Amino acid sequence: MYGEDSLQRFASAHVCVVGVGGVGSWTIEALARSGIGTLTLIDLDNVAESNINRQLPALISLIGKPKVEALAERIADINPECQVNCIEDFVDTENLNQIFSQRFDFVIDAIDQVRVKAAMAAFFIAQQQPFIVSGGAGGQKNAALIQCADLSQVTNDRMLANMRYTLRRQHGFSRQPADKMHIPCIYSRENITPPQTGICHIEQAAPQGLSCAGYGAAMVVTASFGLRCAQACLEHLCRD
């Protein structure tokens, strides 16, 4: 379907996924099954019971296991030829240069710390590193409303709006709304549905990863965000 040339590009590609939770884990699954040759997974979280409703590695038998380790074992059973590098750490402004000292063919940002998302985006643009950013996937039910757009054009996403603000105030990006930021984003036009107090368990925000803290999370949406990120990656590799 992609053609022999594209499949060879997939096999020789090195893709990095930052944050392997409700969005990133599904991105990883799609990339592994699409024949990506090398994957680097970055996350410090362990599998928790509260992840079971939406995260691929979240099984009762795996509670307490590092997510990157659980996913690496899964990938080995899906595509033994895929080389997996696990980095059990959180990306922060202090370790950006160290973690991204090597160039990847593509990077997927699937974390929810605005400060770090902004710093990564600014760093990737400066390094001419191809990447895509996932917006917030919590509090949504309709996967059909998921879109891909430049950050300057994103609506209905508080996290990405805060990221845009941070980039304009702290990283020198143009403050003109019409100016493209050259940061591709996956986001949804759906209005957020808040959880019902006393009915929904409110998960506390994790240090990193798209935790959906404060909102309900529908696996059909979080997985769709992840698959759209994978789609963007594959499309880039086909064009490159």
TrEMBL record:
User: Which InterPro entries does its entry note?
Assistant: ThiF/MoeB/HesA (IPR045886), ThiF_NAD_FAD-bd (IPR000594), Ubiquitin-activating_enz (IPR035985)
* Signal sequence annotation: none
Q: Name one GO molecular function term.
A: ubiquitin-like modifier activating enzyme activity
Q: Which residues form the THIF-type NAD/FAD binding fold domain?
A: 2-140
The record's listing under CDD domains reads: YgdL_like
Transmembrane segments in this chain: where? none
One Pfam annotation reads ThiF
The protein's name is Molybdopterin biosynthesis MoeB protein
- What organism is listed for this UniProt entry? Snodgrassella communis
